[in-house]
TrEMBL record:
NCBIfam families given in the database record: guan_deamin (TIGR02967), PRK09228.1 (NF006679)
Recorded catalytic activity of this chain's protein: guanine + H2O + H(+) = xanthine + NH4(+)
GO cellular component terms listed in the entry, alphabetical order: cytosol
Key words, A-Z: Hydrolase, Metal-binding, Zinc
Keyword flag Metal-binding: yes
Protein name, as recorded: Guanine deaminase
Pfam families, A to Z: Amidohydro_1
Family: Belongs to the metallo-dependent hydrolases superfamily. ATZ/TRZ family.
Biological-process GO terms, alphabetical: guanine catabolic process; guanine metabolic process
Gene3D superfamilies according to UniProt: Metal-dependent hydrolases, Urease, subunit C, domain 1
Domain Amidohydrolase-related: 63-432
Its job: Catalyzes the hydrolytic deamination of guanine, producing xanthine and ammonia.
Amino acid sequence: MKLFYGLVIHSKSIDDLRFLPNTALVVDHGKIVFIEDNADVDKIQQQHQISAENVIVLKENEFLMPGMIDTHIHAPQYVNAGFGLDLPLLGWLNKYTFPTESRFSDLNFADEVYTRVVANTLSNGTTTAMYFATIHKESALLLGDIAHQIGQRAFVGKVSMDQNSPDYYIEEKSSAIKEIEDFIVTLQSKKYPNVQPVITPRFAITCSMDLMKNLSQLAAKYDVNIQTHVSENPAECEVAVSLHEGCRDYVDIYAQANLLTAKTILAHGIYLSDKELEVLHKYQTSISHCPNSNCSIRSGMCDVRRLMTQGLHVGLGTDVSGGFSPSILDAMRFAITVSNLLSLSKSEDYKPLNYKDVFFMSTLGGAQALGIGDKIGNFEVGKDFDALVINLAQTDGNLELWLNESIENRLSKWIHLGDDRSISRVYVHGVEVKEGASNVLRVKRLGGKRKSTEIN
Ligand SMILES: Nc1nc2[nH]cnc2c(=O)[nH]1
Ligand SMILES: [Zn+2]
């Protein structure tokens, strides 16, 4: 058992951000068993019979918050993060993305990259990641092993794609179906408590209707989540609809393939019509908003307020490497900026997203979008303890504190100016997983040996 005591910040809903001073929070076997603000910490320590070394008292400039959730990240594209941003989506996929992803048939290469991406995103406070891997089953399974060993909560998707892809990076339909079923069965058989397989048709351009229908049957058979992309770029939308005869619009393609469920998350959704939003709402399908990617490969600006007004759950995604940064703090800032820019052409009563909204989206909102809002996302008794200790008094970096600043302003400063240096502890399911630098995690996993694999 562990007892945390200090300032706690979490969201109960998008309009209900709580700042809870002097809060006692007790964790047992990874779960939150008690929480009370303005608490008598000694009394609670005694009541729960917690030894002194298991009491963590936060310092004056520290606070505890829920772990952050990246609802859309391509693990293999971590290699490309920060370059190749000169082309829009379809050209970018062909020139930069497919060649890099095709290299993940090499398990040594996959081991090196996946260890780095898991360690680095954890270090940046991503306690849960919804990953796209590649079409290679073995390396996707390896990503699951790595997330488990290092301690990140992860959904891992072996990508499925059987058309309109380069010869060197494509599956045949029958083998795509066999491989994904093997992948699900194998990953589930490992019984990792925090790592789940996810059905991952890349998008409607690279998947035949028949493949997608088979994938939706497997999702139902094994009760797993589904992820794909939707309506990211105007040229993509046009090609997708032209390829699937008899489908009214982009969302209808996935509806006809039975891929829309309450456990489905679609990345982007920039150009969705009102009718498409209605359909997504009917199926309780969520959206992953990836504003860095939308800006960097110039896909467009997604009106998150509109999606939320339609009742959709919207989480945040880094979409590495369409997005250049693996940090969810960066996604929060981009989301605010895009929303501000959109508001310039809206009426005065349009409310752009603010720091409280994006805090929600990166925690409870992300959990709801992944269909696990009852398990993580905030601090409620019965939920798993996925949490970050934030230290605002770090001396490096741009975050400066002044006397008598309100807690609200300090949180806003952290969201706008913080980085991994201010994330001093990271917990997943009650286990501390950030031990100083991400290097420590890497070395631990690789048994103290650096791999000789060259990344180039
Ligand atoms: N941003 C992004 N969009 C996609 N659509 C299909 N594949 C991808 C991808 O890898 N990244
Ligand atoms: Zn993506």
